[in-house]
Amino acid sequence: MRKFTFQFLIIGLLFTLCCNNSYAQQLPESVAVTGTLVRVTPKLADIDKTTMYGEPLKITRDMNGIIINNSGDFARNKRETKRRLEEEMREKINREYVLATGDTKGQVKQSFPTINSPFAPGTTIGTNINGQTSPGLSPSDNNMAAGPNHIIQTVNNTSGTQFTIWNKAGVVVQGPTILATVTGRTGAGDPVVLYDQLADRWFMAEFGPSACCNELIIAVSATPNPTGAWNIYSYVDATFFPDYPKFSIWHNAYYAYSRDFNTAGTAFLGSSVWAFDRTAMLAGAATAQMVRQRIPNSFANISAIGSVGLEGMTPSTGGGLFIVPTSATTLNIFEVTQNFGAATITVGPLVPLTVNAWGSIGNIAQQTGPTLNTLSPFLMFKLNYRNNGGTESIVLSQSIANGTRSQVRWYELRKVAGNWTVFQQGDIPGADGNSRWMPSISMDGCGNIALIYDVAGPTAHPSIRYTGRNASDPLNTMTLPEAVIFNGTAGHTNARWGDYNTAVQDYSAASTPNNGSFWATSQHSNQQTRIANFTLTGGCVAAPNITSGASTLTTESCIPNNSVIDPGETVTVSFCANNAGTANTANLVGTLQATGGVTSPSGPQNYGVVTFGGPAVCRSFTFTANGVCGSTITASIQMQDGATNYGTLTYTFTLGTTVVSAAQNFDAVVAPALPASWVATNPVGGGALWVTSSAGVLIPVPSLPNSLFIDDPSIV
User: Fold this and answer.
1) Please, which residues have CB within 8 angstroms of residue 284's CB and are 6 or more apart in sequence?
2) Nearest-angstrom CA–CA distance, 574 and 551
3) What are the tens digits of pLDDT across the range 645-680?
4) Which of 620, 461, 645 is nearest to 553 (CA)?
5) What is the pTM of this model?
6) Nearest Cα to Cα of residue 253 among 333, 365, 337, 185
């Protein structure tokens, strides 16, 4: 007997805020600022490291944040505003997580990968040295860039940004230097350093203090040698403070985002996306255009945005890319197009990508000292784009909840037929009772992925570890056993931690990425940092990479057939497999598992030779579905080729059909009236009655203008 689920749908009672493309039409007009070339500096060795070209350095930071006019009011205001903002985001995401999973503890039930892949990487650690410290400051904001011959690390200092340059052997070639002594502009930190591999140049940036000038200060090296001269540019907009600016390298601009606060630090305004005229800055032009557009705070989780930067030597053909974790189950990616000649910037439509549900976590425990902030749910610096032989990928990471601990979530997106999709994703919770957080991720030219993160908890001071995978490993797994860069020796004395770390690919020469080699920096212990070079062995090994393709229902046992799988029904489904790797399979065999609502599965099927980059190969399996109408089942097919396990492909189906039996639009009436033929009664008596409302009191805000509302849903 076939069962149907009848659903009475009332428009306006939907509690899901659907993101659509109309948001772009609601954005303010583009803002353009012409940056000025402040100076072309001498080579670094000829600069006085104690002054700003004769002007005294100013103290702009202490451990509480930015100092403005000898006052910490702005920092205190901004810190409180950010705290409220982060709490609101976490509460929203965790409500969404519970609705999606029913898990009230926010514990994603996954474990550190144990899959035995024949292509799993080994690892070696080369240079592993002490980085700079930020004594008496929190956070350190440490990050780094690596080029063919040099590495640069930046951290916060009491006068803004401090940087040091090493050669690849770890020998200092430019000692600790305050960036303001190079730029001649008073800086307040939040530094970023990047290697522009397309131009073989270097990039450093920081912001200026709020009451001074609301300034972004950018330095671009005039030659490939970072110890030589630099072009210094200043961008000023006195209307707001651009907090947490994070930049990215792209072929047609330097892109960035910022979290915008009013000049008092008492209100979060939204996040701006920026584009800077890279060509002009590389040329040392007298002016270089910047265009910016703010996405308002009303857009879900906009402060958690990330800017995508280029890794490798093959650029995208499109505009700048940005990603926002808009909900506990959704990432949204959008493209930004700049026109420096017209001084405009256009924010394109959102593309939603469904991901595994996740919860957000606030502070976490360490072995000694106060709890540490995780910056969950922010997407962590850097988000990296890679074009490997026509395969376009983006890798990104964030900290998510694992009960009262934090774990790392990582993603690889791929562009398929012109559309971005989630290719794989995974979690790193660890198995020792400690938290993993503050990740940074990178991909090399072979598709191998390196992931660094911090570890702290009941049995660990803040430490630095990493993992990785080769491109041919089973999807959704990091197969390299967790490796140690540095084990912390002391607790951190302030709740504010790091703010961001960095993992980047190595370059052996100009325009020559060194596949399998990565550089990383992270904070550890108490305001100390570490810089390390490590390898993932295995390189560009040619091997299959088997991925899920389409699935087609071919036979049903229930009469009449309705082209869906129903509870208790025995069906036959054709499951297709693709090969996204670099070698063909020899004799691939798939075995349908009796899990996830699949019962009585038929026997193994021979997929045979699946050609890499070729057409999908499909085989049919018969099974019985176990579940209820509206629930989902997951068919899992384990793929084996001789002694090699190529992982498990999954295919998800919703059981039964949902029939909308009635609908009502409430927007044609004037609130609080009900539509004609509707009567509000209360069988309990004396309670509140149903009314329409245009007040937008629900969270998220319901469909406007009107929604059906009752202030005591327990009596419905």
Assistant:
1) 37, 40, 222, 231
2) 5
3) 888 899 999 999 866 666 777 777 888 888 887 777
4) 620
5) 0.78
6) 337
